[in-house]
Write a structure and sequence with these properties.
By secondary structure, the chain is α/β, with parallel strands linked by helices. Helices cover 34% and strands 21% of the residues. The chain contains eight helices and eleven strands. It comes from Nakamurella endophytica.
Length: 297
């Protein structure tokens, strides 16, 4: 009877996932349930690992965490002994794309649409976000388009929430690890730089809204009463860390989860559910009509 799984097989990858879940998963009961399901579904599976196997494992684990990702790579490297942390993207790459600020458009009806496609590190993103927010000033309403936003830095989420919440520092969320909790607060932006209370705001979401972008939409909806327009998001509320699991497979594995302090909940599994459901392609027009109607009443 073999005591160790054969290298390069599905059994080896499952064993590595189970070990890391036991080490990292922030709420052990959820991690243990995912580990049991993996063992039961793939016991003795000696298929060589390929991208299809990675998708099968991901699909199963997504019942407990939508943020788990497995990437099968062409090149080999030694598995990690400890989580290496995230590699910082070069500042120049962030500046080239204006830190995800893809467009600011003033529609003929006076509604400003601010499209943000990523949430880069706050110290790099803040100047671009603040400049974009200044272009919204005086609009009949504002639409924050997160339909293509794959997430990023929680500090940038707090920075954008600061624009809406304004002068009072506010405890937004707790990120709970196994051994600690990190609080996220807004800074208390001056009233002169905050979004005017007279400017109604809506958020656009869809299947491309992921991770920290979901956090931004959820906090705005639940805490600020901002209507979400479009389709449900993907439902990934865990914070993940990169780990090389085997010589050819790299994973993003849960190490913390988010709790919104206003509700005590998050969006894991369900996604952020829109207040006004519509095809994401139609969401800008639907959101503009919603805001103009609210302004009229």
């Amino acid at each position: 009877m073999r005591s160790e799984p054969v290298p390069g097989t599905t059994s080896e990858l499952v064993a590595a996932l189970v070990r890391w879940f036991d080490r990292l998963w922030p709420d052990p009961d959820r991690g243990a349930a995912a580990a049991v399901a993996l063992r039961e579904a793939f016991a003795g599976d000696d298929r060589p690992v390929d991208p299809l196997v990675c998708r099968q494992l991901e699909t199963l684990v997504h019942r407990w965490s939508r943020h788990v990702e497995l990437v099968h790579e062409d090149t080999e490297a030694a598995p990690d002994r400890d989580p290496p942390g995230w590699t910082r993207e070069p500042d120049a790459a962030v500046h080239r794309r204006a830190s995800g600020v893809a467009a600011v458009v003033r529609r003929p009806d006076g509604i400003a649409v601010l499209r943000i496609d990523g949430l880069d590190a706050a110290h790099l993103a803040a100047p671009y976000l603040d400049a974009a927010a200044d272009l919204v000033r005086g609009a009949a309403g504002a639409v924050l388009d997160l339909r293509r936003n794959g997430g990023g830095d929680p500090a940038t989420v707090a920075h954008l929430l600061d624009w809406v919440i304004g002068p009072v520092p506010t405890h937004i969320s707790d990120v709970r690890y196994r051994d600690r909790t990190r609080q996220w607060w807004t800074a208390g932006r001056s009233a002169a730089r905050a979004l005017s209370p007279e400017t109604p705001l809506a958020v656009l979401t869809g299947p491309g809204t992921y991770s920290s972008a979901e956090a931004l939409a959820f906090h705005l909806q639940q805490r600020c009463g901002v209507p979400v327009v479009g389709a449900p998001t993907r439902g990934a509320a865990d914070h993940v860390t990169p780990v090389r699991l085997t010589r050819r497979v790299r994973g993003l594995l849960p190490e913390a989860f988010v709790v919104d302090t206003a509700t005590g909940r998050n969006w894991e599994g369900t996604g952020v559910l829109p207040d006004v459901g519509t095809d994401p392609d139609d969401a800008p027009d639907v959101a503009a009509a919603t805001l103009l109607d609210r302004r009229a009443h």
